């Protein structure tokens, strides 16, 4: 099938979309990703592992709008026009829209082309934007999603809490495809770092407890911490400034997707603190957790969050209160008890081999597309 994915980011570091698109290409499908490059920083056309990436840029008028959330509504029109142009040569047979930030494009295309639409909800969008925009726009996001979701044919999401949420607002079939990573190996390999090495790679945001992590680490003996990722410029600058005065923490910036697992495997411990008060982060799955699992590394997650529940269930790390003192105790416990640390790492890898791996999630994705092929034949 000829598949169009719509995506409201430039598709440079979105591991979930990459894994899904690559799996579909491996099954013989043609996948085009229409990606919104709002800063015009990447090539307009790129092919990666058989995935064709077509980037959509802002119009001059869109650039006058300062907030990306508000600009998104304008991109829905621009992205739809770009998709229609692509269809003239690609003749798409199915649309796969990632998140509410691109769902409107998918709905308009389905209406015009009469082809099935998959809604891939990586998160609950209204919760995600709630910290950045007025309540009016949050309410509008929730109402827009409830309206648009009536038009989709199948929902894909990342975990059971989100599955339950979408069941509450839709009667469409729902499939869970977790953000798991490909297995790297099945035999546990311990680390041999001279200093106990912590790693955080991901979104740089106040809800990730990173400024506090730096404060904790700078007080600890024989501990070294690496922090990398991207975030809002103001927060990133404050984080870099704090790190610059701390001898045992390094800032690495944005790490290429293909280097993340190698860096994770070299670490002794992965940090994954998310605020339990932030509904988006507390209910979402964490890429860090799945990266730690396939590398056989223990993790520290926050008590009262979905990643924390998974950590306790699989006995693959420790859970901490969202406080410096609790995090400090957890780090010291794992630093000073190598046997316990390695036990948790083995549990993490065993969980990855048993369940939390992309090879298993890929089957769930492919099954959805097999159902969509039947949908197509039944609705000619």
Order of helices and strands: EHEEEHHEHEHHEHEEHEHEHEHHEHEHHH
The tally of beta strands, per DSSP, is 14
The first-level CATH class of the largest domain is given as Alpha Beta
Please indicate the count of domains: 2
The amount of beta strand, in percent, is 15-25%
Oligomer: single chain
Q: How are the strands of the biggest sheet laid out side by side?
A: 3-4-2-1-5-6-7-8
Give the C-alpha Rg.
21 Å
Q: Give the name of the CATH architecture of the largest domain.
A: 3-Layer(aba) Sandwich
- The low-pLDDT segments are none
Helix content: 40-55%
Which shape, going by the Cα principal axes? globular
CATH topology heading of the largest domain:
Rossmann fold
CATH superfamily name of the largest domain? Answer: Glycogen Phosphorylase B
How would you describe this protein?
- This protein folds into 2 domains: 2-180 and 358-378, Rossmann fold (3-Layer(aba) Sandwich), CATH 3.40.50.2000; 196-354, Glycogen Phosphorylase B (Rossmann fold).
- Helix content is 49%, strand content 20%.
- It has 16 helices and 14 strands.
- The chain has an 8-stranded mixed sheet, sandwiched between helices.
- Helix 1 (15-26) packs across helix 16 (358-378) and helix 10 (257-266) crosses helix 12.
- The longest helix has 23 residues, at 68-90.
- The radius of gyration is 21 Å and the shape is globular.
- The chain starts with a strand and ends with a helix.
- The mean pLDDT is 94.
